[in-house]
Amino acid sequence: MKDSKASCRPEEARDEADGGLNMISRASIHVVAYATAAVAITVLFLGGQLGQWIELAGLSVSRADQIGFLALVVMGLVSCSFGGSRLGVMITGTIAAFIVLTAHQELAMVRYLSLGAVLFAIGIYGMTVSRNAIRMLMSIELMINAANINFVAFAHWVDPLHIRGQLFAIFVLTVAAAEAVVGLAIVLALYRNMSTVNMEKFNLLKW
Amino acid sequence: MESLNLLTALAHVNVEQGFFYVLAAIAIPLAYGVVFDRNVIRSGFLLIGVFATIAGLFFLLQAQFLGLSQILIYGVGITLVIVIALMLTNARQETGMNPALPANVGLASFVSVLVFTTIYLSLRSAEDWPLKNESSLSLPPNIEMIGKHLMTYYALPFEFASILLLAALVGAVMLSKAEPASLANAGDEAEQAVDGTDRV
Amino acid sequence: MNSAVFEIGKFARLTLLWLCIIFGAVWGVSWSIGVLLPAVILSQSGESGRFWAQLLQALVPVVAVALFVPLNTCYMVLAERRLLALFTVRKGPNRVGPDGAFQTVADALKLLLKEEITPRGADLLMYTLAPVIFFAPSIIGVMPLLAAVSGNHPLFTPVNLPTGVFYILAVSSIPVVGVVMGGWASNNKYSLVGALRSAAQAISYEIPLLLSIITVCLLAGTLDFVQIADNQRGSLLNWNILGGGALTHLGIGSPWWSIAAALLLAACCILLFALYVICACAEVNRTPFDLPEAESELVSGFNTEYSGIKFAIFFLAEYTNLFIVSTFAAVMFLGGGHAPFPGLEDACISGLRGLLAAWFGACTPFQLGWLVNSLVNPATVSQVFWIIVKSYALVWFASLIRATLPRLRIDQLMDYSWKRLVPLALILLIAVTFLKELV
């Protein structure tokens, strides 16, 4: 199965050359997405003076946060435009943003909840975008686990006596296992009928 | 002075916090890898890494039982997923193909950023968390607590979970079982093939 | 006949030599790190050295395991080769060192100096990571066992977890990932087939294994290794393999149903032990179930492409897993560090104490007496002796099985697990629960 790689190396190289053009357009989409995301978050933070609803949310923003975000946005834009790896930029950007957002939190719980939110968002992205049905299942597992982090964090800080959050997390694990089993069986059945797991090909009900 | 806030905050990092950020800094790249890696099988292995770091987070949160069962369940479970992925994906088709559907990328990025922003803002804005500061040292071991709860107050959900698992098991077997007709055909073909070779 | 006896004698000599090397080295190093050095530091620098002393003591289990694993593997490979030779009436390795005692050391050196080859088209990251993931659990997994093995010695108490059994079960499920990873990443069809077989086998045999261990934990009423071992104190009848003391409660006047239940319970527990041994064999890929690495059909399966130090790591992990499984069985079923007959343990301890007193007691200055007392604690020595005997007996038993049984076919393997062992394990779980209440 895999050792076909060696034989079709030239094709692969051509694919990558083709992908070069695509890469640029794709990279630009991501740069825009990254920039808008970063700008959006920065604006939200700067908006402590700007909007009523931010005050409603009760945010208190230090100057350091704003500087950090501006630096992040500039860094990301510069490295993207000079051909830096898109994935690398996204990863470093996410981690740096995560640290900036959570390092000064008074409650340790909020850190864990934020990490859960980050993983959940990545899972949503993967689920929406994946071409491969199995990768989609994996993204769903990722989301379920992100939710589990929240349960356990709440169990630790809100309900340390009865740890009901952990109990619920156990039920979530069970449901996740059942979901994975049925999902894989469905993928298997689909593969048998369509001999592919490409999500684009599953369009019989589309009109 | 105000710009030093971040630095002072970072200076007061304690050990638990340090471990948390190390785990987070491992988990986030691995999660990106799961979504963006060109090879489904490798992204499966990265997913195991994500789960391992999440188990580490559970240990940090003093949920030893849950962390261990996370390892136990997902270590094997995701391996199974990978094995099925190995069986179902054609490496020749997959290589060089973008793992993402380009049509969805913009929408997906927008939605995921929106989700994160919403959750984060609601977390930030909430001020009245019903926190309880009981010292966790005097508590009984959590495995004991979990066992007690599962057998008393949560016995019914526990039973439902087992029924759900049973139903999932039966359903999976039914779904993935080869249809009898096609099986019979395959058998016939194989027999014919054998016969043919014999005749030749 | 005569030569067989001679060979057995040679094997016994080899074993004694190696066990002295292994446990002498491990205990010597952990004693000097955990007792001697802290004492020196404390006497030199007083309170300020307390932190360093505690740090050293906390490092002891890690150092002990890191030292134990390679030495033990050297011995186990040698013992296996000698035993296989014995069973098939051959000589076995007998050139390097006295009786070939250092054959495996030489082999290990050769393996470490070999060139490392990465096959073309291999996924380099996964290919490198696989041995590590396969090996790490066996290092981490030994930790809680250390406390039980050393008779809860104060140096090793910190690694004893209240949920040790569950911990080991969780950790021992990780190696499958390493196998699938290595098999897939080496870009070789044989490796891939070996890895797929291994995944299927590990998943199907894990269920009866877990069920059998859960049953023993139900019987013992705890998940703590030290407590499980302590519950089996006394004699053979108190061991979990014979129902964990059900038979000793019987008197003349006990009702017939109680006697029947106790006997049934003992029978169930023997079955349980058999179940555990079978599943453990399958989990560590030993012979009747060594399909993942079948030499004759898959050219050794998932590690075909590995060479040099990576292969050495796979090798280390495999033998360490076998040892862990044996020690686990010794603690869970065979009474841990307790002697099989009532008076034997006390006799061991008092005899050792007498010996120590005779040699070092009267005529030594105080300093030496303290050293000897902290170095050789009779109670601990007796416990360690018994658990070593039991564990290595199980390891040799695995060699015997390897020499005796042919390999199963893959469909027989799966049938055997799902149609025989899983129902049996469930029945035993229920039966033991009820019988325990009846006794």
Description:
The complex is a heterotrimer of chains A (207), B (200) and C (439). In chain A, 78% of the residues lie in helices and 0% in strands. By secondary structure, chain A is an all-alpha fold. Chain A has 2 domains: 104 residues; 101 residues, Helix Hairpins (Orthogonal Bundle). In chain A, helix 6 packs antiparallel against helix 7 and helix 7 runs antiparallel to helix 8. The N terminus of chain A is likely disordered. Chain B contains 9 helices and no strands. Chain B is globular. The longest helix of chain B has 25 residues. Chain C is 73% helix and 0% strand. Chain C is globular, with a radius of gyration of 23 Å. Chain C folds into 2 domains: 113 residues, no CATH class; 320 residues, no CATH class. The longest helix of chain C is centred in the first third of the chain and has 44 residues. Chains A and B meet through helix 2, helix 4, helix 5, helix 6 and helix 7 of A and helix 1, helix 2, helix 3, helix 4 and helix 5 of B.
Secondary-structure element string of chain C: HHHHHHHHHHHHHHH
Q: Can you count the beta strands of chain C? A: 0
What is the radius of gyration of chain C? 23 Å
Total helix count of chain C? 15
Largest interface comes to: A-B, 113 and 109 residues
Envelope shape of chain A: flat
Poorly predicted tracts of residues of chain C: none
What oligomeric state do the depicted chains represent? heterotrimer
- Structural domain count of chain C: 2
Mean pLDDT across all residues of chain C, rounded?
A: 82
Number of helices of chain A: 8
Shape type of chain C: globular
The count of DSSP E runs of length 2 or more, i.e. the number of strands of chain A, is 0
Specify the biggest β-sheet of chain A: none
SSE-based structural type of chain A: mainly alpha
Helix content of chain C: over 70%
